[in-house]
Amino acid sequence: MQVRPEQLEARLARGLDAVYTLHGDEPLLAQEAADAIRAAARAAGYTERTVFTVSGAHFDWSGVLGAAQAMNLFAAAQIIEIRIPSGKPGKEGSEALQRYCERLAPDVLTLVQLPRLDFQQQKSGWFSALDGAGVSLRLEPIERRALPAWLAQRLARQGQRVMAGDAGQRTLGFFADRVEGNLLAAHQEIQKLALLHPPGELSFEQVEAAVLNVARYDIPKLVEALWSGQSTRALRMLDGLQAEGESAVFVHWSISEDLRALARGRAALDNGKPMPLALKDARAWGTKERLFERVLPNLAAQSLAGLLDAASLCDGIVKGLKHPLWPLDPWAALRRLVLMSLDATATPPAPRRAPVRMALQ
Q1: Fewer CB near the terminus (10 Å): N or C of the chain?
Q2: Quick check: 151 pLDDT over 90?
Q3: Domains and CATH numbers, the chain
């Protein structure tokens, strides 16, 4: 059964499930969920703990199956943790996990920890068996739009809050910009505020003075901000990627691939196809589908042609070539390309003028 992370505490209070499956790429949330499950199990009398880490294709699954069944009248209730860092148990592991779930022993609580799983992995037989035998939690990074509320909730846990109204939202927005993409560091910055200031209201100046800039960015988030029209965030992410030593070539490739996809979608719309089919031609799925649906109506074919030409010039610059009309620095050239893309997607295309028909005399 799928359970949201915020529902875990209440579910644990009602009683323990036999199997808990944690999957996702957010280490702080995974650590907190696992700690909460272990604490609830210890309080319920599970005093022993065995950990198996599945590494490589030749892992011996018989040890896992044997540990779960090796119970007797004098044995204590135990926690069995199965960690699969790759998220791929393999054929033998898939069969072993399904057998494991069919033969769950009493007084055994199982905690399975996995990285982020794709759609196919979540539909696999082994994951379905784990999900059916207990509960599963998907632990994904907190999106930027949800980060201020998450920060406010965490501050409230330690008796702190920001000012009400716009001033408080400004403080939370500043805080979110400083810690975006790095929840572990965000957690540490929140704890720091508890050490520096007593419970109660925090001013913007107190947060500004205490919170370090520990944000981390990746290229998919940059292009998401770009096609969402979030100019300030996109430029901040571009600067952050440069500071973190990311490759300008990879950043350029991601933007250029999206521009080519948008060009395919725009051509499909101009040929009379409806938006769903145009997005299919653009090969836009998931989050990219939602972003392109916003962008395509505002992008004329002529604007896209200009952006593709600019991307071609920028490609040469990030690979060491020069152009008299463009900056020599690759990151400055990428900044210009990002600004051009933001400007083009923010301006709706001019409506087509209907042809003038002359009446016959």
Answers
A1: C
A2: yes
A3: 2-138 (3.40.50.300), 144-210 (1.10.8.60), 219-346 (1.20.272.10)
